[in-house]
Amino acid sequence: MPSVAVKLYSVFFKFLLKQRLQNRIQSNPQQPDPFGITSRPDESVANSNPSFSDGVATKDIHIDPFTSLSIRIFLPDSALSKPDSKPNTNPNLGRNVVPETPSFRGDSDLHVLRRNSYGFSGDVESRGEEESSRRNSIGEGLSSYKGYSPAMDNRRKKLPVMLQFHGGGWVSGSNDSVANDFFCRRIARLCDVIVVAVGYRLAPENRYPAAFEDGMKVLSWLAKQANLAECSKSMGVKKLDAHNRHIVDTFGGASMVEPWLAAHGNLSRCVLLGVSCGANIADYVARKAVEAGKHLDPVKVVAQVLMYPFFVGSVPTRSEIKLANSYFYDKAMCMLAWKLFLPEEEFSLDHPAANPLVPGRGPPLKSMPPTMTVVAEHDWMRDRAIAYSEELRKVNVDAPVLEYKDAVHEFATLDILLKTPQAQVCAEDIAIWVKKYISLRGHEFSY
């Protein structure tokens, strides 16, 4: 069972959440806000840091002038290493983060926290401060605003890109919140990827399909960035300046090339990761990417990770009955969130955005990318997520399920639980599986 501290905080959390949701319902605007908002005033926000102070540099970009859609890019300092450096032969698969809790004593103590996870052992190694400091001191690493600016005249290491969607029940959370910033930094280091956290528009100011459209819009933006970067090379542009380097795209408009992605992003190995309701968005984006096919080239979605997805349905599952009053996000409050997200005339628990197994949802499940699903033992949404994964496996899609013992919804991403050993284990397990599909040397991490 969860600890006493978790149980007590859950009561407090649900009390505040219920008040916020009811206030949203009472103050529900009659007219939608096309521009929208991506963060609430009561959200604790972490400022972006364009230097590698803790091994990951970040920057915020507003990518759509017509809406509030924004992204935060997380660039790990491993991108500064030489692209022809020797591959990592350490059996720890590049784990380089010291766990954030003093109670961590190694993998041997953490196996009891896992259920249905892969049998992998090894110690976590820390990255020395001297190495990080050395990389920060590289001449081309600092621009006039004291942020990392890549030099384009040398070959740079290319990293896969992970598109991340935060949770929050459609009405709260943000891509730059303290908790999401912490989680994305951890994932960027462990997976050795560039994380692009999406600040999608929130409900009820922007109901369905706004958040889903924002997710697809960012994926299309990434494809455009890759094409712009390639175009700049063909035009002989040797160096990209984040402030004034513009090139003309095929439509005749001025478009700016994002230097971090141009220098270090490999969009042919793109992974989607969604948390709670963000998992719904990730799954939608994956389906649309399948339907788009070559129209998104050179972007290719090679895998997705759904962390305790926010799925429901009109016919209740066993966990939805037994765990209806579960910790943090119980079923009653989640129904309020769905009422705020779905338009009144479309509200249904079998809405395609809510139930992944409704007929005609498209495309065929056999076309979906490999999908890892993370579920918690004490989460009322657990069974439906498992059922979706089972349907994927029936059509030969690699779709493992990792169920964590004594865990609650958002056990690896909620602010007060981020530093627990179980949250660290979950991030490591995700990294192990993701590396099967982003490795340049093939499926070397298969099990």
TrEMBL record:
Domain named Alpha/beta hydrolase fold-3: residues: 162-412
Superkingdom in the source lineage: Eukaryota
Pfam family, one: Abhydrolase_3
Chain intervals with Basic and acidic residues compositional bias: 124-134
Gene Ontology MF term list: hydrolase activity
Family matches, as InterPro entries: AB_hydrolase_3, AB_hydrolase_fold, Carboxylest/Gibb_receptor
Region (Disordered) residue spans: 24-57, 80-108, 121-141
SUPFAM superfamilies: alpha/beta-Hydrolases
PANTHER family the record matches: ARYLACETAMIDE DEACETYLASE, CARBOXYLESTERASE 11-RELATED
Family: Belongs to the 'GDXG' lipolytic enzyme family.
Protein name as it appears in the record: Alpha/beta hydrolase fold-3 domain-containing protein
Species whose genome carries this gene: Lupinus angustifolius
Lineage, broadest ranks: Eukaryota, Viridiplantae, Streptophyta, Embryophyta, Tracheophyta
